[in-house]
């Protein structure tokens, strides 16, 4: 099973959380950024509906696959 990790990081004059190369909005405190990261991680675990999805990879190739709504990743927050 896939695992994704949100990282709480210093950002600008405050704090943010980061997943891969994507960074959240800035929060005034570390605790606020961590709470937002925990909320995002919890939402990743919510089941959805089964669906066909289409996405483009880094090379510009398009893919179509069937996504099961209950196939959710494991999540964690560090920092």
What tags apply to this protein structure?
four-stranded mixed sheet, DUF2188 domain-containing protein, alpha+beta, DUF2188, 1 helix, about 80 residues
Could you describe the 3D structure shown?
By secondary structure, the chain is an alpha+beta fold. It has one domain (4-67). It has 1 helix and 6 strands, in the order βββαβββ. The protein has one helix spanning 30-44, and strands at 3-11, 14-19, 22-23, 51-56, 62-67, 74-78. It has a 4-stranded mixed beta sheet with strand order 3-2-1-6, covered by helices on one side. A two-stranded antiparallel sheet has the order 4-5. Strand 4 and strand 5 form a beta hairpin. The model has no long low-confidence stretch (mean pLDDT 92). Pfam families: DUF2188. This is DUF2188 domain-containing protein. It comes from Hyphomonas chukchiensis. Residues 57-79 are annotated as: Disordered.
Regions with little confidence, pLDDT below 50 for 5+ residues = none
What is the spatial order of strands in the main beta sheet? 3-2-1-6
Largest sheet: 4 strands, mixed
Q: What is the helical fraction, as a range of percent?
A: 10-25%
DSSP helical segment count: 1
Oligomer: single chain
Element order, helices and strands?
EEEHEEE
Proportion of residues in β-strands: 35-45%
Structural class by secondary-structure content: alpha+beta
Query: Mean pLDDT, rounded to whole units?
Result: 92
Overall form = globular
Q: Specify Rg, calculated over alpha carbons.
A: 15 Å
Q: Kindly state the number of beta strands.
A: 6
């Amino acid at each position: 099973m896939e695992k994704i990790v949100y990282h709480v990081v210093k950002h600008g004059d405050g704090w943010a959380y980061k997943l891969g190369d994507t960074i959240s909005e800035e929060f005034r405190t570390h605790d606020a950024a961590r709470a937002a990261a925990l909320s995002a991680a919890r939402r990743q675990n919510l089941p959805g509906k089964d669906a066909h999805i289409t996405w483009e990879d880094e090379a510009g190739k398009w893919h179509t696959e069937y996504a099961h709504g209950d196939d959710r990743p494991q999540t964690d927050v560090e920092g």
